[in-house]
Write a structure and sequence with these properties.
Number of helices: 9
CATH class: Alpha Beta
Shape: globular
Distance between the termini: 12 Å
CATH superfamily: Oxidoreductase, molybdopterin-binding domain
Bound molecules: ligand MTE
Number of domains: 1
Number of strands: 12
């Protein structure tokens, strides 16, 4: 992102799991779960038992408390998979998706998973305000009781040109909008991450304007793909990935996917986002994935899926152009791809 001049998607050798190791581990669990190697060719990550998951975390070298931080919340997982959201590529190894992260509140490098354990994600509540019928604060557990959890396989494309394919658990953002009961004049949602410089020590850096802020239009927020993730790989979402809840908008660059949300404000003014205020020449409000529109400092034509070892072509709207349809009709004059 802004402060990274070197190619920041490059994985350091120590972070990469040899694919052969990953595959053999998955093949064993798959064949146990599905009864045959062939039948197990589809992903079964959400079907892992807790013992399997913990054994895998132990094998991966990721400490158990990092891989599986909220044991009390495990009752919600695994959530049933929504088969409408399938995947055209292998899922990213869990140990990579949970150890190669962007969470600037804990540092500007990728290995923040240990530091992120300082986040107090339980108890947690979200403040809903602005242009709504009645502003309120919802406790995380209370919210979980009012939604139906499901699992979706989504592509996730960072603006830095690395990508993942992961099983998120959570619920449609449209459900949260419904619970918030916005007024008819509301046009945007403004999301905020927790601001707590004593534990999120990256927030002590004066260069950025904290807290992390993101925004969506009402049409984007109520689109069927927009998702609030509370889980990952059939378990509560790890702190480094944005516990206890984060946004997932898979047709946009990953920086839109704000983590550890504490506030959602409905407004008629377009929010100025964290990356817009930090680097207005490079980052905009819309941030839709487009291989033909280069970042000011690098091409977006290709990406490197974590763990794959080579690049693949990037797809318009990250492969979700069919679902996006005419969402941006009439907005062609806007900088939709930054
Ligand atoms: N949310 C907050 N609060 N802080 C961040 O630094 N980074 C963003 C996004 N959400 C970020 C954030 C970026 S740049 C990306 S690519 C994704 O989180 C990374 O999500 P992951 O670490 O789960 O892969």
């Amino acid at each position: 992102m802004l402060v990274k001049i070197k190619r920041s998607w490059e994985l350091p050798d120590r972070a990469a799991t040899p694919e052969s190791l990953y595959l053999s581990r998955r093949q064993v669990s798959k064949s146990i779960a599905a009864g045959s190697i062939l039948a197990a060719a589809g992903p079964i990550l959400s079907a892992c038992s807790e013992e399997q998951s913990q054994a895998e975390a132990a094998n991966s070298g990721i400490p158990e408390e990092i891989a599986n931080h909220q044991s009390g919340a495990n009752a919600y997982y695994p959530a049933p998979r929504n088969s409408a959201y399938t995947m055209d590529r292998d899922l990213t190894p869990e140990d990579l998706a949970t150890s190669y992260n962007n969470f600037y509140e804990f540092g500007t490098h990728k290995q923040i998973s240990r530091a992120a354990q300082a986040l107090q994600s339980d108890p947690w509540s979200i403040e809903i305000g602005g242009m709504v019928e009645s502003p309120k604060r919802i406790g995380f557990d209370d919210l979980m009781r009012q939604v139906n959890l499901e699992e979706r396989l989504y592509r996730h494309r960072c603006v830095e040109a690395w990508s993942m394919a992961v099983p998120w658990s959570g619920f449609p953002l449209a459900r949260l909008v419904e619970l918030a009961a916005p007024l008819s004049g509301a046009k945007y949602l403004r999301f905020e991450t927790l601001h707590d410089p004593s534990t999120m020590t990256g927030q002590q850096a004066g260069f950025y304007e904290w807290p992390y802020v993101e925004g969506l239009t009402m049409a984007e927020a109520t689109h069927e793909l927009s998702f609030i993730a509370t889980g990952l790989y059939g378990k509560p979402i790890p702190k480094q990935n944005g516990a206890p809840l984060r946004l997932v908008v898979p047709w946009k660059y990953g920086f839109k996917a704000i983590k550890s949300i504490v506030r959602i404000t409905f407004t008629d003014e377009r929010p100025v986002t964290f990356w817009q205020s930090s680097g207005p020449r490079e980052y905009g409000f819309w941030a839709n994935v487009n291989p033909e529109v280069a970042h000011r400092r690098w091409s977006q034509a290709q990406e490197e899926p974590l763990g794959l070892g080579h690049r693949v072509p990037t797809l318009l709207f990250n492969g979700y152009a069919g679902e996006i349809g005419d969402l941006y009709a009439g907005l062609e004059h806007e900088p939709l791809y930054m």
